[in-house]
Design goal:
alpha+beta, six-stranded antiparallel sheet, 4 helices, about 25% helix
Length: about 180
């Protein structure tokens, strides 16, 4: 059963667009050591390094995989975001037998809100604080709309807000009220 919010998910005002991204697959790489066997296997499977602390990066892992976004979440956790279900599943299979870590599909538990436009900073400042506004290449966890939200930016003019599913409606309603009030 799809329990995603049923309210209109596209909010647009001059200089700002906000959408609940229903297609993005989100996984968590959990490992004991960022230099251990699992991390090395993940780097090989992804075709690139895990992000440094507080960073995020987008890259094309292979020709058929499309864009992969990696976001640092903690010293022992990296988020993997992808629009390609087949590649996401293939990555899960590749990492299933690796020692000292695992990949957990969080697509049903973590949802992404895509915020685009030149007024992103204004919105995030009204919802949180300056600490909640990531620069390009950053992944920041902070309080937004009184929730713990990971905000990541891999390209100028676009921020993804990652929030636990149970709080998605709350976040979207705060955004909607803030946009109406601007």
């Amino acid at each position: 059963m799809d329990s995603r919010p049923t309210t209109d998910q596209v909010m647009e005002v001059d200089g700002l667009s906000v959408t609940l991204d229903r297609e993005l697959r989100i996984g968590t790489l959990r490992y004991l050591d960022c230099t251990g066997a699992f991390a090395a296997c993940a780097c090989q499977a992804l075709g690139g390094p895990l992000p440094e602390p507080l960073h995020a990066a987008a890259f094309v892992a292979t020709a058929n995989r499309g864009e992969i976004i990696l976001a640092w979440r903690s010293p022992t956790e990296t988020l993997v975001l992808s629009f390609d279900q087949a590649s996401f599943s293939k990555l899960e299979i590749q990492l299933a037998s690796a020692a000292d870590g695992c990949m957990v599909d969080q697509s049903g538990g973590i949802w992404a809100v895509r915020v685009c436009g030149p007024r992103i900073g204004d919105l995030l400042l009204r919802l949180g604080a300056t600490a909640s506004i990531p620069a390009v290449g950053e992944a920041r966890t902070s309080r937004i709309a009184e929730l713990s939200v990971l905000a990541l930016c891999v390209r100028a003019g676009e921020v993804l807000l990652l929030v636990e599913r149970v709080y998605a409606d709350h976040l979207l309603e705060w955004i909607r009220a803030t946009i109406r009030d601007s």
